[in-house]
Write a structure and sequence with these properties.
By secondary structure, the protein is mainly alpha-helical. Helix content is about 65%, strand content about 5%.
Length: about 140
C-alpha cells in the first residue's frame, strides 16, 4: 500500500516539474518578441462576465505575449497588440498592425456603404409600395 502512495507521489512530482518546464519554455518564447500560436490545448481561459470564453484556446489560437489574452485568429492578435500594447511592439509588429488596421478599416467602410445602400433601397421600396397601394 505504501509503495502505491510513494509511486503516486513520484508521478505527481514529475508532472509538476513537466508543467513548470513547459511554462518556462512558454515564457522564453514570449520573451523572444513574437506572437506565437498556443500549443497547450489544456489551458483554460478566463471567462467573461456573460460566461463565454475569450477564445483562442487550442492549437488554432494565438496568445498575447504581454497580457496573455488569447485570440482565435492571428489578425485579431495583431490588432490587439497595436491597440492595447503599442509601446511593446517591435518594428515588424508595428508594420503588421498598420497593414491589418488599414485592411480592417477598408472592410468597415465597405460594410457601411453596403448597409447604407440597403437602407436606401428599403426606404424607396417602401415609399413606392405606399404610393402604389395607398392610392
Amino acid at each position: 500500500m505504501s509503495e502505491t502512495n510513494h509511486t503516486n507521489e513520484a508521478s505527481d512530482a514529475s508532472e509538476t516539474r513537466e508543467a513548470s518546464n513547459t511554462a518556462a519554455d512558454a515564457d522564453d518564447a514570449a520573451d523572444a518578441g513574437e506572437f506565437r500560436p498556443i500549443d497547450d490545448t489544456s489551458a483554460t481561459e478566463p471567462a467573461l462576465a456573460d460566461g463565454s470564453e475569450t477564445g483562442g484556446s487550442g492549437p488554432n489560437g494565438y496568445r498575447c505575449r504581454v497580457c496573455g489574452r488569447s485570440f482565435p485568429a492571428a489578425h485579431l492578435l495583431v490588432l490587439h497588440g497595436g491597440v492595447r500594447h503599442p509601446s511593446e511592439l517591435t518594428e515588424r509588429e508595428s508594420a503588421e498592425f498598420r497593414a491589418e488596421y488599414e485592411r480592417e478599416e477598408r472592410q468597415i467602410r465597405s460594410f457601411r456603404i453596403r448597409a447604407l445602400g440597403t437602407l436606401v433601397v428599403l426606404y424607396f421600396g417602401f415609399l413606392f409600395m405606399y404610393a402604389i397601394y395607398a392610392s
